[in-house]
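Teaching soon. Got one?

===
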Amino acid sequence: MSETVAAVAEAAPAKINLALHVTGRRPDGYHLIESLCVFTAFGDQVAVGPAPRDLFTVSGPFAQDIPGGVDNLAIRARDVLRKAAGSAAVSPALIFLEKNVPASSGVGGGSSDAAAVLRALKRFWKLDIDAGVLARIGLALGADVPMCLHARPLVARGIGEVIQPLEKFPSLALVLVNPSVAVATPQVFAALARRENPPLPPLPARRDTTSLLGWLATTRNDLMAPALDLAPAIGDTLTALSGAGAAFARMSGSGATCFGIFSDNTAAQRAANAISTARPDWFVAATETTASAPPGTGI
C-alpha cells in the first residue's frame, strides 16, 4: 500500500470551446472534431482526503444537479484510477466537490471534475503514473477528459483525444452566460444537419488578442445551429453579450453557455454586472482564461 497524504485539492476549471468544427463521424458513432479550447479561472473545486470508506460529498450552487453512482463522472474517475493502479491504490478516499458550474452547460463541467479527481487522487495515492497513461484513463471516462487534464490552451482533434498544446497563447477576459437552460449534448449532435465540415484554419503566427479575434471571425461552432433550434434562449444570451460590449460572442461546446471576449477584466466585470441586473434568472460569471504553460510543463 502506498503512503497517503492528508488531503489534496485541485481546480476543475470551465472548458471553453472558442471554436468547434465537426469534421466527420467514425463508424462507431463518435464525431470527429477540431476545437480550440481554453480554460478559465472560474470553475468547480475538488478535494480528496482520507476516509474510513469511499465517500462523495457535494456542495455549491449547482450541487442539486449532480447525479450519484455510476452516472457521476467524479466517482467513476476514482474507480477507474483505482482499477488501473491495482494494489498500489487501495486506501479509501473522501471526494469533495464544490459545484459552481451549471450542469449540461457546454463548458465541460463533469469532464473537468473527473480530470481534477484523477489529478488529485494521483497525488493523494502517490501513484507513479505518467501523463500519457492518465490521459488514456481519462479517455475511458469521456472524450473531453484528456483535454481537461491539460487545462491550458490547446487544439483538440479526433474525438478530442489528440491534443496539441498551444504556446504563447494569452489570457482572455471573458463573461460566461447561461440562460438557465440545460442542453443534452447527444440531442445537439443528433440534430446536426452536416457532419463533414472544413477543419480549423491555421492559427495566426501572432497570438495577441486582436489577431485571435480576427482568426475567430473565420471559424465556427458547428453545434450552435442545432443547439439554437433546441434552446432558442441561446440567441438571447448572445444578444446580451454583444449589447454589453463583447468584442466577440459565441456559444461554447454544445451549449447553452455562451461566452463574450472583452478588452480587459474591468470591462468584463462591468458587462457581467449589467447582464446580471437585467436577467437575474441567468447564470453570469466574469472570469479570465489561463494562458499557455511554460514549454515542457506536463499535466
About this structure: DSSP finds nine helices and ten strands in the chain. The longest strand covers residues 31-50. The CA atoms of residues 31 and 55 lie 35 Å apart. The beta strands are 8-25, 31-50, 55-59, 93-98, 154-157, 162-165, 173-178, 248-251, 258-262, 283-288.
